[in-house]
What does this fold into?
Amino acid sequence: MGKGMQEGDLKQRTKNFALSIINLSNSIVNTDLGKIIKRQLLRSATAVGANTRAAFRGRSQKEFIAKLGTVIEEADESFYWLELLIEGKMINKSGTIKALMKESEELTAIFVSIKQRYKT
It folds into this structure.
C-alpha cells in the first residue's frame, strides 16, 4: 500500500465507521420510512468494512481493484442515506451525522486514491 494509511488502519477505520452508524441507528425515527433508510444505511456502512477486508484478501490485483470499487460505492451510498436522514428530518443528531458524512467522504477519497494507484 505504500506510505500513509496501512491495511490494518483502514480495516479498523472502516470498522469504526460501521460501529458509529450502528450506534446512530437507534436515533433514527421509528416510522416505516425511517426503518427503510436505517436498513439501507446499515447495509451500506457495514459493507464498507466488509469489502475493505475482502479487498485485502483478494487473490489478484484485478480482484483487489474490483473490491475497492465496491468499497467506494458503499461509502458514497452511506453518505447519500445520511443526507436523506438530515434533509428528511428523520434524526436530530445533526452534529453526529455531519461527522459521519465527513468520514464517508474521506473514506471514499482514500479508496479512490488507492484504486487509482493500482489501476493499470
In short: DSSP finds four helices and no strands in the chain. Helices lie at 7-25, 32-56, 61-87, 94-118.
